[in-house]
Specification:
Helix content is about 35%, strand content about 25%. The model has no long low-confidence stretch (mean pLDDT about 90). Strands 6-7-8-3-9-10 form a six-stranded mixed beta sheet, sandwiched between helices. A four-stranded antiparallel beta sheet has the order 2-1-4-5. The chain folds into two domains: about 1-75 and about 150-225, 3-Layer(aba) Sandwich (Rossmann fold), CATH 3.40.50.300; about 85-145, no CATH class. It has about 220 residues and is α/β, with parallel strands linked by helices. About 40% of the residues are buried.
Length: about 220
Amino acid sequence: MSSISTEGLKKEFGKVVAVRGVTFAIEPGEFVGLVGPNGAGKSTTLKMLTGQLIPTTGSIQIDEVDVVEDPGLARAKIGYVPEEPKLYEYLSAREMIEFVISVRGAGDVDFGLEVANLGTAADRLIREYSQGMKRRTALATAMVARPPVLILDEALNGLDPPSAERVIKVLQEACQDGATVLLSTHVLDTLERVASRIIMISQGRVLTDVPVDQLDEVRGMFESP
């Protein structure tokens, strides 16, 4: 059983083809890195996986639920952090986490606060937070219900090294508990330490899908002009 499965995924915006027949499968417990140059189709792919965009053609399943046929149930199985998280800035992180728990009908405030790792700042308004604090709050809201699939778009952006290390540790622990992590990032060195596989997208297609020990091959493609 795959946690994430796509088959022939295509997305057109008028005459522009952003994603061209993307196919891959990710199993429970895998930590997979999604890489590629700007404009490669990574974010469009992630938005289709999370039900924000409807594919022009192709299919997507999240934990064996068809995203197009039953988007509500599919979303319930996903924790998602977009590249630019949108939070209610006149709530505190604690209140934001409590709100998400009430919407999802599941979760634990203490676990969410542990993920956010904000200390006493958890009771300050989010509008006062740094970019890194906001991103950790967004990650906490994505993980608080312990969904089986975590989809993260540049989730390490804006984090100082200690915060990034803590986030990586939390994600690794989620994988050990059976969750699937799909992380879109430009930080290839981080993936070398944490990912089991690397999927590279270029011009809307899967260019390569390899184990992390073949990262040098991906890096060469990534850095090519």
